[in-house]
Every structure is written in structure tokens, then in C-alpha cells.
Fold this sequence. Notes:
Elements: H1 2-5, E1 14-17, H2 27-54, H3 61-90, E2 94-96, H4 97-130, H5 135-138, H6 141-167, E3 176-177, H7 184-189, H8 196-230, H9 234-242, H10 245-265, H11 271-278, H12 280-292, H13 294-302, H14 305-311
Parallel strand pairs: 1-3
Antiparallel strand pairs: 1-2
The chain binds 2-acetamido-2-deoxy-beta-D-glucopyranose (NAG).
Amino acid sequence: MADIEQGNQTSITEFILLGFEELVDLQIFLFLLFLVIYIVTVAGNILIVVLIVADQHLHTPMYLFLGNLSCLETCYTSTILPRMLASFLTGDRTISFSGCIAQFYFFGFLVTVECYLLSAMSYDRYLAICKPLNYAAIMNNAICSQLAAGSWLAGFLVSIIIIFLMSQLTFCGPSIIDHFFCDFTPIIKLSCSDTHVMELVTSMLTFITTLPPFLLTLATYVYIISTILRIPSTNGKQKAFSTCSSHLIVVTVFYGAIMIVYMLSASGMDLMMTVLYSVVPPTMNPVIYSLRNKEIKAALRRLNVWTLFTKNNMFVFLP
Ligand SMILES: *[C@@H]1O[C@H](CO)[C@@H](O)[C@H](O)[C@H]1NC(C)=O
């Protein structure tokens, strides 16, 4: 690539993340709002991980995947929100070049892992609902661990390639990113190298790696829903649906948010809309599972810190 020949001319050592600059009067309000979102997200997801690790009843594939997902969501919000909170508080909007690349790396890594984990979870629900007799034979501990490990590995490999390509780019100014975190498109726009090849490779890579898990998730839900509709009794229908409804909501929120943003980005990205897909889904996950899932609620009651949380008004976890 021609970019490499230009050598290490990077004259920019830091970027400026504009973020919500136009909302200058609201900085304190935004700080408090996102601080609450951050605390609720991290506390909720860590609580789910603790419940799943500590409670023997929850050592089944569905909950082990959920534990992985909650770990992931904790890391995910932590790549975006603390940096954002700091800039609301201090007004300092600069981020170093390597900090920016690291932020994008973790963001891309975790989003890819999430795609794969969600599809592993929907495959698990597909087996439980459509192939109940073979479930235990197919979804054993080894397969479950392999699917989880495979998800993390896939995310790691995809994002390492993209980061490698990105590290070949030269940035010679301007350095202003009109966004609240270092996302792919805003960084690429600032490069003075020819980014066509890079953009093409990245689009293809994203397409090849995220389309299969998405299609798998979609296909399993088509099967699951048509199987549930064929169950004769209303009671049986409800019972089958309740085992996959939490996951279906989480999947819908995740892909729904990405699709809304994707469609809007064609007509110019709205910052508030980006918040939708980068900040909201991780928050929803524990709320959905704690509100809807009987076994999680039962595990919460078995765990003694339950009383501690109700005393502290963690209202989201109330049954
Ligand atoms: C993630 O999944 C693996 C494999 O199933 C499991 O052993 C591990 O406990 C899970 N992690 C969490 C935090 O649930």
C-alpha cells in the first residue's frame, strides 16, 4: 500500500473529541445522566456475573453465555463512558492518538464478540425449544465452552486486522473528531492517506464476519417462533416463549439500535442516535433479565446481598 511508503509522518499526536460540544450549558446535567447510566450498567452487569458464578442452579449453557455477555457489556461501557464523563467534568476534550486507537480497538472487538455470543445464545435457545430431546446431547459443557471461546477469538482476530490496517494510515490534521468516542468512520475521515483500500477491506471484513452470526440469529428465531406457534396449548406456548423472551429482547435491542443508526448515518449521523447504540444496549441487558427472568430473580433472593440492594433503592432489580 502506498500509505506505508509515506513512513511515520504522523504529525498528529492527539485528537479532539467534540462530543456534545453544542450542549455547553448542559454539561453538568449530561455528566450526572451518563454517570447514573454508567453506574447502573456496571452494577447490574457485575451483579449478573456474580449471581451466575456463585449460584450452582445457573450453571447451564444459557446462563454461562449470559455471564459472558454481562462481562462483555461491562467492558464495553467502560471503553466509552468514563472517557466521556471525564470530558464533561473537566472540559478537556483531547485524546491521545494511541488512546483513540485503543478505544476503537476495544469497541470493535467487543461489538464483534457480542454478535457471536448473541448467535451462540440463540442457537442454544433453538436447541432447547425446537430440539428438546437432543438438547443435552448437543449443548454439553465442551460445546458451550467452545462456542464462548470461539466468540471471543473471532472478535479478537477481526479487530486486530482492522487495527493493523488503521495503524498504516497517516494523519496530518485536522484533528477534530465530531463524535463522542473514536469510532471507525470519524477516524478514517481525518486521515490524509488514501483510505479507499482500507475502507473496502474493512467493509468486506465486517460484512463477512458479522453477517453469518446475524443470519444465524435471525434463522433460529424464525424456527423458534414457528415452533412455538405450533404448540397447541396456550400454557405450553407461554412456557416455551418465556425461556427465550429475554434473549429475544436483548437481540432486538442490539440489532435494532445498530440498524437505526446505520440507516440514519446515510443521512448524516445524529449524535444522540449514536448514544442509542453505544450506550443503551448494555444498560438494557441486566434490566431485561432481572425483570423478566424467574431463575435470575430466584437466584437474587438466594443471594444475601439482595437485601443490601433493596435497601440502596436499586429499583431496577425489583421483581
Ligand atoms: C463464559 O463461558 C464459559 C464457557 O461456557 C464459562 O466457563 C464461563 O464461566 C463464562 N463466564 C461467565 C462470567 O459466566
